[in-house]
Amino acid sequence: MLADFSSVVDAVNGAIDDAIPPERRLELRIGVNLGDVIIDADDTFGDGVNVAARLEALTRPGTSASSEEEVAAASGGRGARRTGRDRISPVI
């Protein structure tokens, strides 16, 4: 599933929405990235999508991952905490 948001804060809030009761939550793996995205008829692609997919691959079910850029942009976001550091190679 691919979801887009108008801001990093909205994306982070969507990833940690605690208004949904635990028994109704889906255990998603979420990658959050602030980057360029191209929307073309039936497809969405670009560096923003590629990096988000790579970040998502680093997560466990029920968790999310984002780059330091998103953490800085969403500072003051609720529930965010640093759990470690993984490195991914740059998208060229």
Q: H/E series, N to C?
A: HEEEHEH
Individual helix count = 3
* CATH superfamily descriptor: Nucleotide cyclase, GGDEF domain
Tally of strands:
4
Can you tell me the CATH topology? Answer: Alpha-Beta Plaits
Oligomer: single chain
Question: How much helicity do the residues have?
Answer: 25-40%
Stretches where pLDDT is under 50 for at least 5 consecutive residues are: none
What percentage of amino acids are in beta strands? Answer: 5-15%
Count of the separate structural domains = 1
Tell me, rounded to a whole number, the average pLDDT. 75
Distance between the termini: 24 Å
Shape: globular
Known CATH architecture: 2-Layer Sandwich
Q: Which structural category do the helix and sheet elements fall into?
A: alpha+beta
Widest sheet: strand ordering? 1-4
Indicate the CATH class.
Alpha Beta
Quickly describe the structure.
The chain has about 90 residues and is of the alpha+beta class.
Describe the structure.
With 92 residues, this protein is α+β, with helices and mostly antiparallel strands. The chain has a single domain (8-73), classed as Alpha-Beta Plaits. 26% of the residues lie in helices and 13% in strands. The chain contains three helices and four strands, in the order αβββαβα. The chain has helices at 8-15, 47-56, 68-73, and strands at residues 30-32, 38-40, 43-45, 64-66. The strands form two sheets. The chain has a two-stranded parallel ribbon. Strand 2 (38-40) and strand 3 (43-45) form a beta hairpin. The protein is globular, with a radius of gyration of 13 Å. The mean pLDDT is 75.
